[in-house]
Amino acid sequence: MVKFRFVQNNGEALDVETYEGQSLMEAAVAVGVEGIDAICFGSAVCGTCHVYVEQLSAVGEPGETEETILAETGLRKPNSRLACQIRLSQACDGLTFTVAPPRRD
Amino acid sequence: LTLWKNLKMQTQNSERPAHVPPERVVDFDMYQPLKAGLDIHESWRALQESGAPDVVWTPRNGGHWMVLRGKLVTRVLQDYRAFSSRVVFVPKETAGAAFRAIPITADPPAHKAFRSLVTAEMTQAKVKSREGTIRSLAVQLIESFRLKGCCNFTQDFAEQMPLRIFMEMVDLPFSDAPRLKTLVDQYTRPKPGVTYDQVWRQLVEYLQPLIDERRGKAGTDMYSRIINGQVDGRELTNEETLSMTFNVLIAGLDTVVNFMGFTMLFLARNPTARHELAADLGRVSTSMQELLRRFSLVCIAREVTCDLDFEGVQLKRGEMMLVPTLLHALDSRENPDPMTVNFKRPSLSHSLFGAGIHACAGMHLARTEVRIMLEEWLTRIPEFSIDPASDIHYIGGNVIGVSPFSLIWDVSSTRKVSV
Questions:
Q1: According to the model, what pLDDT value does residue B11 have?
Q2: Packing angle between helix B271-279 and helix B253-269, nearest 10 degrees?
Q3: Residue partners of B140: CB distance under 8 A and separation at least 6
Q4: Nearest Cα to B409, choosing from B260, B257, B261, B268?
Q5: What is the tens place of the pLDDT at every residue in B165-200?
Q6: Interface check B369 vs A, CB under 8 A
């Protein structure tokens, strides 16, 4: 089990304690995090599970495909990641993930 | 997704093509997976644990490939370039050719615009706004039989709840539900002598007037939004509209019904797990994940788009690849001790809702329906068991299932709770 926090689009924090092994996107969808629509469900093509990671070093930098999608969202920040590309492990324990605003396109 | 339960498949086995190595061949019929003495999930797992390679070929159902491991399930589903959704059922020539529904059988680039019309109506926020309606429906159904001490769980609850929620979402009267249910059943469980074309014509008879009536009007229900939706800057053709209204009609019904069946069968037989879940209903959306994993139930196929080296075998363009998503959940490489329901397992991994661009568009709704069922049922009827008169048997197919069964309980153990 791993514990972490989402800050949703509406500003509300949601603390989650869940199973490791799945992606951060799957964990967000399971508890109904506002703003994580995950339309392509893990293909890293839609950019609808975009989060800002409080401590990026804990989860690592985005890959090449992910980088392209993040750029396309127009909401890229230095600590952007797609939640579907973050595999949950103890490294995520205690982190805060702020859900990016909805894409405008 | 459809079941095609009673649709008799070609029984003649296909010849092994020369490029399929003999050691990759297993004799496995996805529509008849049951092995003596095992339940349906155990039967599928027996294939996975038989020592077979991770990618196998079976001569059944037209002859097709299958992936048996979780990593490969997600890999095939995410690689839409190599694995097309043009045909999603085996045998390719019969069940596969008969099933055409947008967006399930659409490929990129066309797929995205059609799917967006559906997902726009199924976002977390939209589902949340319906939660109150879903909850009162669940309560109403439970209260209709709570004091009787028994119910046919499948018919009185599982088949009612998703269909009624759907009727509400597309703004159709509840009084049409039986007719619609019959139509869907005829399509997904064809009766001998009734052709696919005949059933389709009956569906069109129901859907076409509704489409005509709502076209050009500003309705806010899901059907109106689809009917008046735009794809790539144009309106949908009538054929596309029929296909999409049909797709959303069938998409979430059998899957949710069958999942609820497996879940309640398990909880009725396992008081310890039931009590554990009931004791912490505040965490049910997380602990429920273990049930979603353990009772994964979909087997979907893909068509290979090009000659391809894949995990040590040669796939040929046009061949079918079956993706039993339930084997991801039951794979001990992904989930140690996979057959045990353990709400406290540290880690889990599954593909109940698929993966990639065709992942279940209704997943937020489906999760909400199951969660609310658990919350309301376990609060009101915490103690229940299987009616010994119920003959439990399992049904293979694109969505595996359990036959209708009844639950019984002591009325004095139930609780009336105000919403």
A1: 56
A2: 110
A3: none
A4: B268
A5: 999 999 999 899 888 888 887 776 667 777 778 888
A6: no
Enumerate the residues of chain A whose CB falls inside 8 A of the CB of residue B283: 17
Residues constituting chain A: 105
Sheet holding A80-82, edge to edge: A13-18, A2-7, A96-99, A50-53, A80-82
Contact residues on chain B for A37, CB-CB shorter than 8 A: 119, 123-124
Q: Chain A window 71-100: which residues touch B at a Cβ cutoff of 8 Å?
A: 88
CA distance, residue B213 to nearest chain A CA (Å)? 30
CA distance A34 to A12: 9
* Chain A nearest CA to B52, separation (Å): 25
Residue B419 has what pLDDT? 63
For residue B57, give the H/E element and its range: strand B55-58
B407-415: average pLDDT: 97
ipTM of the predicted assembly exceeds 0.95: no
Please, what's the b/e burial string for A23-57 (b: 16 or more CB within 10 A of its CB; e: otherwise)? bbbbbbbbbbbbbbbbbbbbbbbbbbbbbbbbebe
- Cβ atoms B33, B396 nearer than 8 A: yes
CB-nearest to A32 from B116, B124, B345 is: B124
The partner residue sitting opposite A19, judged by closest CB among B346, B364, B367, is: B346
Bond before B17 cis per omega within 30 degrees: no
With the C-alpha atoms ordered A12, A17, A23, A27, is the resulting torsion angle positive or negative? negative
CB-defined contacts A:B, below 8 A = 81
Residue A39 contacts B where some CB pair is shorter than 8 Å = yes
Tokens of B237: 């053709």
pTM of the model: 0.92
pLDDT in tens, B223-273: 999 999 999 999 999 999 999 999 998 887 789 999 999 999 999 999 999
Q: Is A41 on the interface with B (CB under 8 A)?
A: yes
